[in-house]
Design brief:
Layout lengths: L16 E5 L4 H13 L5 E5 L14 H6 L2 E4 L4 E3 H11 L4 H6 L3 H16 L1 H8 L12
Parallel strand pairs: 1-2
Antiparallel strand pairs: 1-3, 3-4
Helix pairs in contact: 1-6
């Protein structure tokens, strides 16, 4: 398991969204690093889910639930997960705004969760293909 450094997390004070990611997953960590670079407005607060309990303001869902999908919490305390969380992130990061806009189309919105589930289910393979390490979490086959 990778060790998680609390000081390495992106900690803007004006964050619109708290983003919990799996620091033990190469693909998830790669995505978090990419988001950190793209977040020029500093709207995201990226926190490894392994440290989520230490951030009292996050009040995260249970660890098992967190391992199954990306989770985001907005300033109003509303939690989003999976594809919906991805679209919410896209709405905050200017370079990703086209994704958020396209994601509003009914036909695209209907595809967001199935595509997210496919990527999440294969994230260990995707990480290996990207050369960023494998994921320690293995989703159940159900």
């Amino acid at each position: 398991m990778a060790s998680v450094d609390a000081t390495a997390t992106h900690q803007p004070t004006n964050a619109e969204l708290i983003v919990l990611f799996d620091a033990d997953c190469g693909f998830c960590s790669w995505c978090a690093t990419s988001l950190e670079r793209l977040d020029t407005r500093h709207c995201l607060r990226l926190i490894p889910l392994q440290l989520a309990q230490a951030h009292e303001e996050a009040d995260p869902p249970g660890q098992d639930m967190l391992l199954r999908a990306l989770h985001v919490r907005d300033r109003d305390g509303h939690w989003m997960r999976g594809g919906r969380a991805c679209l919410r992130i896209a709405a905050e990061v200017p370079v990703l705004w086209p994704v958020a806009i396209i994601g509003r189309a009914p036909i695209v919105r209907a595809c967001v969760e199935p595509v997210y589930r496919f990527v999440a289910h294969h994230r260990h393979r995707i990480g290996r293909l990207l050369g960023v390490g494998t994921c320690t979490y293995r989703p159940s086959s159900r």
